């Protein structure tokens, strides 16, 4: 099962305690995946979803909020690699106009957010939850960080971006074929989104993976840094050994000043030692900086004498 389905199944169990929140969530579901039809004086609300848990939740909320009994039909078809869809059908009775007006559906399904319905922060969070349940997708955190909500209307996309921006979620919009995609790419902002909509278990799973990836990346950076430093040290050591050996072949050890001779001999005998290790072997011992200063002095002197010869 995909991580997106895990998140949807968790959100489907998150039932808003307040009636206003359930209305907001239902509004988001109908705005993104609903259909309104009319035969003579009767209205039929249809909600088509690709997740069974979301369909059950919609069924319950319609009954809880409006006291309406719905039916659920299951259809099998191949579309974008998904082959099972659930349609929640709700037949409206004599009070249809009142319900449609309350749901902002009386003029038909207008694909934009009814801001008057989202006066409270809890209702905004419920609306985002409904949008994700209907049209949301999130990558597994082991890969790249990516969360998106798909819609087919530029006004709706602009409204969703504005709604997410009210929670400091800087969403982007990109066109993909015939759809518009509202997306988040930053791991921290995706975590904030999961917290807002109430996906607490998914949030913990996401954060655990983020922490492991962060630790792994830090270890890799440290190893790479140490490897680079080791390679740099070995390159410098080999150059110093070669320089000293060439000079000794021509002028002997006596040609090296006494105060630098011991360091030169130690470098030739221990080419894989660091300057700090060489300094500890000197008599008297020197610090790493003192050894580095003396080594530079030795190299400069040998190069100058070799140039004169």
Characterization of this structure:
This protein has helices at residues 3-12, 19-33, 52-66, 96-102, 121-135, 154-165, 187-197, 200-251, 258-269, 275-281, 288-308, and strands at residues 34-39, 42-49, 70-79, 82-92, 136-138, 147-151, 172-176, 179-184. It has 309 residues and is α+β, with helices and mostly antiparallel strands. A hairpin with a 2-residue loop joins strand 1 (34-39) and strand 2 (42-49). Helix content is 57%, strand content 17%. 31% of the residues are buried. The termini are far apart. It folds into 2 domains: 3-198, Homing endonucleases (Endonuclease I-creI, Roll); 230-308, no CATH class.
Helix and strand run: HHEEHEEHHEEHEEHHHHH
Determine the mean pLDDT: 85
Q: Assign a percent range to the helix content.
A: 55-70%
**Main β-sheet description:** 4 strands, antiparallel
For the record, what CATH class of the largest domain applies? Alpha Beta
Low-confidence regions:
none
Number of strands: 8
Strand content: 15-25%
- What is the count of distinct domains? 2
Structural class label? alpha+beta
């Amino acid at each position: 099962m995909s991580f997106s389905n895990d998140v949807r199944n968790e959100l489907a169990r998150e039932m808003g305690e307040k009636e206003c929140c359930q209305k907001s969530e239902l509004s988001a579901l109908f705005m993104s995946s609903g259909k309104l039809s009319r035969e003579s004086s009767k209205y039929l609300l249809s909600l088509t979803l690709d997740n069974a848990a979301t369909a059950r939740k919609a069924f319950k909320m319609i009954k809880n909020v409006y006291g309406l009994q719905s039916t659920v039909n299951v259809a099998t078809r191949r579309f974008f690699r998904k082959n099972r869809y659930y349609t929640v059908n709700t037949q409206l009775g004599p009070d249809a106009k009142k319900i449609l007006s309350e749901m902002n559906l009386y003029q038909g399904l207008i694909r934009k957010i009814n801001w008057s319905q989202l006066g409270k922060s809890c209702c905004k969070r419920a609306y985002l939850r409904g949008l994700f349940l209907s049209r949301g997708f999130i990558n597994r955190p082991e890969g790249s960080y990516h969360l998106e909500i798909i819609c087919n209307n530029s006004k709706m996309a602009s409204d969703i971006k504005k709604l997410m921006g009210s929670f400091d979620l800087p969403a982007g919009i990109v066109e993909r074929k015939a759809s518009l995609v509202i997306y988040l790419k930053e791991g921290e902002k995706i975590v904030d989104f999961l917290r807002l909509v109430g996906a607490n278990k998914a949030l913990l799973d996401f954060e655990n993976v983020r922490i492991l990836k962060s630790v792994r990346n830090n270890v890799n950076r440290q190893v790479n840094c140490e490897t680079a430093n080791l390679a740099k040290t070995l390159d410098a050591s080999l150059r110093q050994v070669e320089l000293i050996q060439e000079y000794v072949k021509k002028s002997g050890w006596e040609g090296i000043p006494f105060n630098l001779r011991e360091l030169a001999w130690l470098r030739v005998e221990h080419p894989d030692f660091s300057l700090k290790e060489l300094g500890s072997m000197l008599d008297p011992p020197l610090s790493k900086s003192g050894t580095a200063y003396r080594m530079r002095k030795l190299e400069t002197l040998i190069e100058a004498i070799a140039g004169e010869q």
